[in-house]
């Protein structure tokens, strides 16, 4: 695990919980981060335990991440905190409908 983290192959490892089924919420978020600030903003965003994962895209909206919070109101609170800390807008794309694709892997 330590080697994978050092190589940046993974940033987090742990269980995946269905926050919505437990009364919480998920929200896909995106930001337009200036290239020279990308690493610093990534660290700021990832410092929030509510960030499920974060990845870079080759697009104007170049940072995408998922927020998973204990309450639906937590999404707004964390997104606003990230905006204050980074000075950048966090676009929120809440889930409207869930799709199950049936992907399974054998361990």
Could you explain the architecture of this structure?
The protein has helices at 2-6, 38-46, 72-86; strands at 25-31, 51-56, 63-69, 91-94. It starts with a helix and ends in a 13-residue tail after the last strand. It has a four-stranded antiparallel beta sheet with strand order 2-3-1-4. It is α+β, with helices and mostly antiparallel strands and 107 residues long. The mean pLDDT is 86. It is 27% helix and 22% strand. The chain is built from three helices and four strands, in the order αβαββαβ.
Unreliable segments of 5+ consecutive residues: none
- The SS-based structural class is alpha+beta
- N→C terminal distance: 16 Å
Compute the gyration radius: what is it? 15 Å
- Please state roughly what percent of the residues sit in beta strands, choosing from under 5%, 5-15%, 15-25%, 25-35%, 35-45% or over 45%: 15-25%
How would you describe the shape? globular
For the secondary structure, the number of strands is 4
Total helical segments:
3
With strands numbered from the N-terminus, the spatial order across the biggest sheet is 2-3-1-4
Task: List the helices and strands in order.
Answer: HEHEEHE
What's the rounded overall pLDDT mean? 86
Main sheet characteristics: 4 strands, antiparallel
Helix fraction by DSSP (H/I, runs of at least 4): 25-40%
């Amino acid at each position: 695990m330590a080697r994978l983290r050092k190589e940046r192959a993974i940033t987090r490892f742990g269980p995946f919980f269905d926050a919505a089924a437990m009364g919480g919420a998920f929200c896909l978020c995106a930001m337009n981060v200036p290239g020279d600030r990308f690493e610093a903003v990534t660290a700021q965003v990832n410092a929030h335990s509510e960030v499920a994962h974060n990845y870079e895209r080759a697009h104007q909206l170049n940072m995408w991440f998922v927020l998973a919070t204990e309450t639906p109101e937590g999404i707004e609170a964390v997104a606003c905190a990230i905006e204050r800390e980074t000075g950048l807008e966090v676009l929120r794309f809440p889930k409207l409908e869930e799709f199950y694709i049936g992907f399974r892997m054998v361990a």
